[in-house]
Design a protein that fits this description.
heterotrimer; A mainly alpha; B mainly alpha; C alpha/beta; A: mainly alpha; 11 helices; 76% helix; flat; B: mainly alpha; 12 helices; 2 strands; 2% strand; binds adenosine-5'-triphosphate; binds magnesium ion
Chain lengths: 241, 312, 240
């Protein structure tokens, strides 16, 4: 599964892996803003972003081809719009749409590939994201695998018994509704169980963090460097290349 | 429709982040106020459920199939504020982990689907959710949640200068409508099935704040949808309309106008100024969210009677 | 001697109307280990969830001299540790170490000390190597061990285990029995595993239809309720 692979990547030990999640988030934002504000008719900045991002993934031991392949999930969507733009006489924007969305996805992958999700979410909370959303995302991520697997098993079990296919449409529609409802019930019951387990271990309404974040000088230097690089890449458009 | 990064012009994504972030912060605090962190596992698992439920296909017709989007279902099961929180968490994880939707575009996607989408789903339910109209209200809620979100996304793209010829827009609108009807039907089917298992899992419609607020919200929503539709179906009309009333001139002086033809001008502007504006905007959003949070927390801490109820 | 758990006349009904407990009387003495038997759905899990106030029904439940009421919940949950039947529900934190330190942190222990406790508990169940793993990457048996560690790390006075040997391999079962045998706490073990019950519990209790239908020596009870597949019966019929 996709996120399981990312999770394996994120447990590496490179320089980038070791940075405080907050500075990585800010660095990623800087490069995303740089990409977003780059005018469409230039080539140099896009080349610079690509080099930066590929360099970062290679340096942190991520499989570069894997990163590039995964980022390609945005291509069907952007290619469609690019084609439409092209047809309506705006080839520059067409190219920019594809490049920008692809590079932005790559940037997101470098961030998530070098930062385990719990750390990333902790960093987001420390940067001011609402705690409730961070917690919900944390639990969502934790149970994503389990609930999806359950859905998969249900589909397999249904298929094994001649299942959801081949009947008249209204029947199938209702059967699918039933399957979703059962999944809902399982999820709800699971949430109740988790709630009980939390209460049983002394939970009284506030999750205590086990690990705190600490900014180091290296982190600050990294952030400075990342900002400079992002700006410099963006600047290469101004240089008229 | 999840908008990826690279599609929205800077003024558009900045504005939507500026609108979305505080709104979500407010909703998150509202959801948390009810029960502290204890609700987080339920909402998280519900989010995972929505993800997983999307693996189950519904036959829509002509050999194609659709799946649940979920904002309406969430609104009717965990309540609108919590549903917005869950949808936001889903969108954030989709952007971060699955590259489905952008990170800078998160504000736009959250605004479209988690805020307006959930509200659009809840309003009909709130008005007609009891009595004979109930099934219709649920259907309408599901339909509106997808319709408003998709129309908003489409108009944001057009506003950002992504060009689409008329026929393409018409076809997109047709597809959106089909998806919206499907979501309505799917939501009805799922809610019925859940009610057969355990009716207690569906929340009855509840009053959200003052009636006037609901009315304003409904009106705003209708306007947004209609506006979006008009803008989407004939972007030229909107533009000439804007030109006529002089909005365009004002907008141009405000932020060098986001409209298509002026896009180039925006980019010709000193890029450093743009980048500075971008960063300043981000800082502003950040500050606003933080300040608002602090303010609310203080007010709550001051005005809260000893809140004894711990459990659910 | 004063019992650490005293239950009388306990009744409980789930939201959907299922009467899961219909008048349960039970007691547990300090240091004692009791096995709970009974068919699927007989109310064992429901019963143990009352012992730390996660569920509350009608009747009297007294733990360590305190009635299970809202005011006492914090203290009672400190003293009663429950290992849940469904390990995935208990392991809700993102990593094994986070999960096992969840309980100690809630007890108000300093983060560093909580992590130490967690590590030592993980050592006890032989899972120290999996500190940084995500719970969903563990095998079913490993999940059980980590769930047990999460409760051991809180150092409870009363230990309750709901089906602790499900999905453990035979060496794992043996290790668990040894570990539990070493622990001095009073224990309630909900199990279908006659071998484990014989090995750890002198006394057993038999549930049926939400009531306790038998309370006595484990060996005698297992026979009375015919709770073991005997070897002859388990033999497959000859093929020819
Ligand atoms: N959340 C619930 N809502 C409704 N009924 C429930 C719920 N949980 C359990 N029950 C019912 O309560 C009864 C007792 O269930 P319980 O889980 O206590 O059984 P058990 O003895 O632990 O069974 P097992 O050996 O299968 O674990 C069963 O009939 C079950 O169907
Ligand atoms: Mg049980």
């Amino acid at each position: 599964m996709h996120h399981v692979v990312l999770e394996r990547w994120s447990r590496g030990g490179s320089f980038l892996h070791a940075r405080d999640p907050r500075v990585k988030i800010l660095a990623a934002l800087a490069i995303l803003v740089a990409i977003a504000t780059t005018p469409p008719q230039t080539a140099a900045p896009f080349a610079a972003y690509a080099i930066l991002l590929i360099g970062a993934s290679a340096a942190s031991g991520l499989p570069v081809s894997g990163v590039l392949a995964r980022a390609a999930v945005v291509l069907p969507f952007s290619a469609t719009f690019a084609a439409i733009s092209w047809v309506s006489g705006d080839p520059e924007r067409a190219a920019a749409l594809v490049l920008k969305s692809y590079l932005s996805a790559t940037a997101a992958l470098v961030l998530i590939g070098t930062t385990p999700m719990p750390k990333l979410l902790l960093g987001l909370e420390k940067l001011g994201a609402p705690r409730m959303i961070v917690l919900v995302a944390l639990f969502l991520y934790r149970y994503l695998f389990i609930v999806s697997e359950q859905a998969q098993h249900m589909l397999q079990a249904a298929a094994a018994r001649g299942g959801l296919f081949g009947k008249a449409r209204p029947l199938r529609f209702r059967a699918a509704g039933g399957a979703v409802a059962v999944l809902f019930g399982h999820s709800y019951q699971r949430a109740v169980g988790i709630h009980r387990a939390m209460l049983s271990r002394g939970f009284e309404g506030r999750l205590m963090p086990a690990s705190a974040l600490a900014l180091t000088v290296t982190d600050a230097l990294f952030l400075g460097g990342a900002l400079v690089l992002a700006f410099a890449s963006r600047l290469s458009a101004g240089a008229g290349l | 429709m999840h908008i990826p990064d690279g599609f929205l012009s800077t003024p558009v994504w900045l504005t939507l982040n500026a609108v979305g972030a505080p709104a979500v912060g407010l909703l998150a605090r509202r959801a948390q106020r009810e029960s502290g962190d204890i609700k987080a596992p339920l909402l998280g698992v519900m989010g995972a459920f929505v993800f997983a439920a999307q693996m189950i296909n519904f036959p829509v017709g002509m050999g194609t199939s659709g799946h649940l989007v979920g904002s309406a279902l969430l609104a009717y099961t965990v309540g609108p504020a919590a549903a917005a929180v869950v949808m936001t968490a889903i969108l954030a994880l989709q952007a971060l982990v699955f590259q489905d939707g952008g990170i800078l575009a998160l504000g736009a996607n959250v605004f479209n689907m988690a805020i307006v989408g959930v509200m659009a789903a809840y309003l009909p339910y709130r008005q007609f959710g009891r009595g004979r109209m109930r099934t219709f209200a649920i259907f309408l809620g599901g339909l509106l949640s997808v319709l408003t979100a998709a129309c908003l996304a489409l108009s944001e793209l057009l506003l950002s200068g992504v060009r689409m010829p008329g026929p393409v827009v018409t076809v997109s609108l047709g597809l959106i409508l089909v998806c919206a009807v499907a979501e309505g039907a799917i939501t009805v089917a799922v809610i019925r099935a859940i009610e057969r298992v355990n009716a207690g899992w569906i929340r009855g419609p509840e009053a959200m704040g003052k009636p006037a607020l609901g009315f304003i919200a409904t009106a705003a929503l209708l306007l947004v949808t209609l506006g979006g539709l008009v803008a989407s179906s004939s972007p030229d009309t909107l533009e000439s309309f804007a030109e006529q009333v002089g909005i365009a001139d004002q907008a141009r002086s405000l932020f060098e106008t986001p409209f298509a033809d002026y896009q180039a001008r925006f980019f010709e502007a000193d890029w450093l100024a743009q980048a500075a504006a971008g960063l300043a905007g981000l800082a502003l959003i950040f500050g606003l969210g933080l300040g608002l949070g602090k303010l609310l927390r203080n007010r709550r801490a001051a005005g809260r009677p000893a809140n004894a109820a711990g459990g659910d | 001697m004063q019992p650490v758990v005293e239950v009388s006349g306990l009744r409980f009904r789930y939201d959907d109307g299922t009467a899961a407990l219909q008048g349960v009387d039970f007691h547990l003495f300090p240091g004692e280990t009791v096995a709970l038997f009974g068919a699927n759905g007989s109310g064992k899990t429901t019963f143990v969830l009352h012992l730390n106030g996660v569920l509350t029904g009608e009747g009297r439940v007294v733990v360590c001299g305190m009635p299970v009421t809202k005011e006492n919940l914090t203290e009672i949950r400190r003293r009663v540790g429950i290992v849940f039947q469904e390990a995935d529900e208990q392991l809700f934190m993102p990593t094994v170490l986070d999960d096992v330190s969840f309980g100690p942190l809630n007890l108000g222990i300093e983060p560093a000390a909580a992590v130490e406790r967690a590590k030592s508990a993980l050592g006890d169940v032989g899972m120290l190597h999996a500190l940084d793993k995500a719970p969903y990457h563990l095998s079913a048996g490993e999940k059980r061990r980590v769930a047990l560690a999460g409760v051991l790390a809180m150092n409870p006075e009363i230990l309750i285990l709901d089906e602790p040997t499900t999905s453990l391999d035979p060496p794992g079962r043996r290790d668990l029995a040894r570990l539990l045998g070493r622990l001095p706490q009073a224990k309630i073990i909900v199990t279908h595993d006659a071998w484990l019950a014989r090995r750890l519990a002198v006394r057993s209790v038999f549930f049926e239809g939400g009531r306790i239908m038998g309370d006595g020596a484990t060996d005698e009870l297992l026979k009375r309720f015919d709770w073991e597949c005997d070897a002859a019966e388990a033999m497959p019929a000859r093929l020819d």
